[in-house]
Amino acid sequence: MLLPIGAAAQSDGFNFPDDINFLQQPDPNLRRATARVNGNIITGTDVDHRVALIVASNEAQIPPEQMQSLRLQVLRSLIDETLQVQEAVAQEMEVTAEEVNESYASYALEQFNRTPEQMDEFLTSIGASPRTMKRQIQGQLAWERLLRRNVTPFINVSAEEVNELLAQMQASRGQFEYRIGEIYLSANPNTRDQVRANAQQIVNLLRQGGSFVAAAQTYSEASSKVTGGDLGWLQLERLQNPTMEGAVREMVPGQLVGPLEIPGGFSIIYLIDKRQIGMSDPRDAVLSLKQVSIEFAPGTTETEAQLRAEQFASAVEQFQGCGDADARAAAIGATVQQNDQMSARDLPEALQTLLLRMNVGEATPPFGDLQNGVRVLLLCGRDDPPAQAQAPQFDQLMNSLEQERINRRAQSYLRDLRRDAVIDYD
């Protein structure tokens, strides 16, 4: 006999009862490991290999309690890739094995300085496989090809829109713009809790030292996943989302926030950088630096290291600028390295702040530890950026607006593919 389900409630066109009574109780321990997507099989081995690749890419240990969520997210990513490849075939835009192999060879050389054969060995050694990497490449190439033909030609940005934006930016001179990385996960009322949990697992992984770029390329459902989630430089109003605007406004570069619930799903936000429109940024200064460092021999105790570090600090106080640094460093058994083209922006934030307040010839306080030794940086010179930053160019703004619209259309395209797919879970 059916149990009473109560009065129906309206929610986005669906009729939901006030009291949900399941005719069969869902099994919380049941997890789908494999799937058949429009007839194409995704095996447990496919999932295992992709998980191994993610773990190696993020260089972080994943706690056992998070592994199941990671596997579910990987399965969803593999389903999306399969749909993208199938759509490319259906549109007679199939990515060939030769194209995949060429991209694989380029990736191995550019990212790892390895030959394809060496890359094969590396992937096998971490529990992944060349096949899983090539499958990911095939999906990316297929999706890029589909967007170029079915989405990009139908995106229109007029010269009037760009000129209006240029005028707004001129009027906004001195205000901040932000370079944002985003990982977007779609959700609906039925999947909201699970997607939130998955997003939190990704956040935990990133806070343990995982790569944001690798995570975005693996998990994000936005088309910006191909750029590692990088949305480029933009003002907060262009996010068109009060939740994201409020969060980013309070962030500092390098900070991670999320998961944030937004219409249609959840976002994980990483603030890559921020700057003032039309104004020079002190962090664009080019510094001439000397690093003076000492190392500790194996077996050195903490007490011995502390004494040596104090002696080093006292000796550095006697340095008279960069001119006599080499001779004084040699006298205390320290080594010297020099870089005359170091952008302040490329330094850790703590060193950026410190060095940009220093005068030429001054040294930072010593920093380091027993394992890595102790060092100081001497500021030998500084070339500041122009007083006024170069204004954005017309073509740059047009490309930025086009990419925003492509991203939104691509998300809709992928939702349509999922909706029409026949997916069986084993």
TrEMBL record:
<dbReference type="Pfam" id="PF00639">
    <property type="entry name" value="Rotamase"/>
</dbReference>
<dbReference type="InterPro" id="IPR050280">
    <property type="entry name" value="OMP_Chaperone_SurA"/>
</dbReference>
<keyword id="KW-0413">Isomerase</keyword>
<keyword id="KW-0732">Signal</keyword>
<dbReference type="InterPro" id="IPR046357">
    <property type="entry name" value="PPIase_dom_sf"/>
</dbReference>
<protein>
    <recommendedName>
        <fullName>Parvulin-like PPIase</fullName>
    </recommendedName>
</protein>
<dbReference type="GO" id="GO:0003755">
    <property type="term" value="F:peptidyl-prolyl cis-trans isomerase activity"/>
</dbReference>
<keyword id="KW-0697">Rotamase</keyword>
<dbReference type="Pfam" id="PF13624">
    <property type="entry name" value="SurA_N_3"/>
</dbReference>
<dbReference type="InterPro" id="IPR000297">
    <property type="entry name" value="PPIase_PpiC"/>
</dbReference>
<dbReference type="InterPro" id="IPR027304">
    <property type="entry name" value="Trigger_fact/SurA_dom_sf"/>
</dbReference>
<feature type="domain" description="PpiC">
    <location>
        <begin position="175"/>
        <end position="273"/>
    </location>
</feature>
